[in-house]
Amino acid sequence: MSEFDTIAAICSGLSSSGVCVIRVSGDEAVAFADKIVSFKDDKSVGDLVSHSFRLGKIVDFNSGSVIDQGLVLFMKGPRSYTGEDVVELQLHGGIYVASKVLRSLIDAGCKMAEPGEFTKRAFLNGKMDLTQAEAVM
C-alpha cells in the first residue's frame, strides 16, 4: 500500500451508538466521496466550503440505493487532522449503516485504513509531533 493512497475507516468505533463517523483522507477524498454522496442540487462534495457541513444522501456504490442520510464535512488540506484533504460522513449510528457505507467506499476504490494510519499521516505531514502521536495510541 502506498502512503499516498486515499484511505477510509470508521472513526467513531463500530458499535450501536447514535452517531457514526467515517473519515476519508487523501488526494482523492473528494472524488471517492462524490461517488457515494448526492446532494439535492447535484453539487459536488468539492463544492463545499472547507470546514463546512451539508446534508446529503449516502448511496451504495454498486446499486445506487440510498443507505442513509447524514452530514458531509469537507476539510481542505493542510487544515485537517491528517494534513490532507479529508471528508467526514457523519451518519446515523449502528453497525449495519457504518459497515455498508464503508463497504461502498471500498467498492468505489478507496483503500481501508490500517489501525493508526490517520495519526501516522498526521505525524508525517507535520500536524503533530511524535509525543502527540504516541498519546493518541
Label the overall shape: globular
Radius of gyration, whole Å: 14 Å
Encode the helix/strand succession as letters.
Answer: EEHEEEEHEHH
Question: What is the number of beta strands?
Answer: 7
Q: How big a fraction of the residues is strand? A: 25-35%
Mean pLDDT: 92
Structural classification: alpha+beta
**Which residue ranges are poorly predicted, with pLDDT under 50 across at least 5 consecutive positions?**
none
How far apart, in Å, are the first and last alpha carbons? 22 Å
Individual helix count: 4
The main pleated sheet reads as: 7 strands, mixed
Helix content percent band: 25-40%
Strand arrangement, largest sheet? 3-4-5-6-2-1-7
Describe the structure.
With 137 residues, the protein is α+β, with helices and mostly antiparallel strands. The chain has 4 helices and 7 strands. The chain has a 7-stranded mixed sheet. A hairpin with a 6-residue loop joins strand 4 and strand 5. The two termini are 22 Å apart.
